[in-house]
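Dear H.,

Thanks for agreeing to be a second pair of eyes. The structure we're designing against is below in token form, covering all 316 positions.
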């Protein structure tokens, strides 16, 4: 009875200890918990536990998942290993960053440089300021993640990621500045600095990824920075609309239209009435959907901004 109770205690302690790691535990951690090598061998011989990677034991308490696979690789990579690059970007929810295959992990230089199922990056310096936790995973923080990704992504792919992340976190640009100061020789420093320098000054006002993509499309077409979330009022000062992007000097408005939010007859009617009121106040309204952002419509909007600005200047 004592032996059975002892085994039950082991089950409880190991299960509790490994819960956040998807039922995975290292041999070193089992030793710390007082589990003998003989006990481990017995459990593995009985099929209750299994070895899934060098030094990593599966306690059989969780089902397979990509998160469990990633945790297995982290544990196998050893102490100090962290999720990084695009894998970290996926965990942080960066715009359009899909989970990469293989997973990307950073380890200290001098450790193993290969691990089946992982793309290992090495670093000589990974200070505490660069590391955090997402869903129990040790992971590079957003600023360091962007710095790492900047070494591999072209500017046109990096821009929407940085812009959207900055939209969601107004403190990110300061964190990026601190990260680049800590790692001035990192390969991505110059590229990331260029993207940050071009951020729209009112980016925090953008309310969706579509607006981020739209602002970038307009900037690439040569548009001056618009005012975001401008409140338009009538001659009596009554509220008419809050618009996505506007050039008050040209009296041009752009609305970034996500079809999912403007598809019912009632919504369409409200949008039409709102835009008619804006037209009556002298505003020219253009509606851009995601599919329009790579079309000539963007250039047409920019041309109208310039044309109306020149006309008003000439009239003055």
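And this is the sequence the design step returned. I haven't edited it by hand at all.
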């Amino acid at each position: 009875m004592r032996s059975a109770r002892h085994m039950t205690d082991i089950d409880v302690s190991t299960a509790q200890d490994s819960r956040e790691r998807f039922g995975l535990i290292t041999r070193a951690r089992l030793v710390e918990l007082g589990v003998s090598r003989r006990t481990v061998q017995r459990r593995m011989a009985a099929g209750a536990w299994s070895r899934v990677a060098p030094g990593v034991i599966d306690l059989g308490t969780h089902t397979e998942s990509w998160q469990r696979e990633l945790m297995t690789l982290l544990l196998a990579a050893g102490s100090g290993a962290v999720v990084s690059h695009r894998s970290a970007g996926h965990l942080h929810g960066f715009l359009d960053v899909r989970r990469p295959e293989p997973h990307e992990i950073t380890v200290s230089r001098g450790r193993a440089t290969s691990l089946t199922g992982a793309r290992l990056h090495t670093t000589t310096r990974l200070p505490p300021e660069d590391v955090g936790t997402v869903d129990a995973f040790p992971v590079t923080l957003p600023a360091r993640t962007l710095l790492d990704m900047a070494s591999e992504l072209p500017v046109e792919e990096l821009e929407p990621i940085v812009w959207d992340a900055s939209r969601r976190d107004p403190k990110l640009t300061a964190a990026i500045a601190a990260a680049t100061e800590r790692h001035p020789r990192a390969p991505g420093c110059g590229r990331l600095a260029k993207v940050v320098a071009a951020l729209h000054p009112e980016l925090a006002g953008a309310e969706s990824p579509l607006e981020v993509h739209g602002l970038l499309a307009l900037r690439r077409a040569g548009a001056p920075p618009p005012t975001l979330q401008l409140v338009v009022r009538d001659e009596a000062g009554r509220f008419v609309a809050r618009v996505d992007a506007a050039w008050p000097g040209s009296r041009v408005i752009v609305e970034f239209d996500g079809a999912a939010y403007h598809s019912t007859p009632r919504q369409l009617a409200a949008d039409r009435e709102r835009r008619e009121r804006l037209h009556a106040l002298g505003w020219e309204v253009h509606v851009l959907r995601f599919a329009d952002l790579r079309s000539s419509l963007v250039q047409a909007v920019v041309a109208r901004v310039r044309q109306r600005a020149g006309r008003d200047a000439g009239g003055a």
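Two observations from my side: The chain is about 45% helix and 20% strand. The two ends are 97 Å apart (CA to CA).

Warmly,
E.
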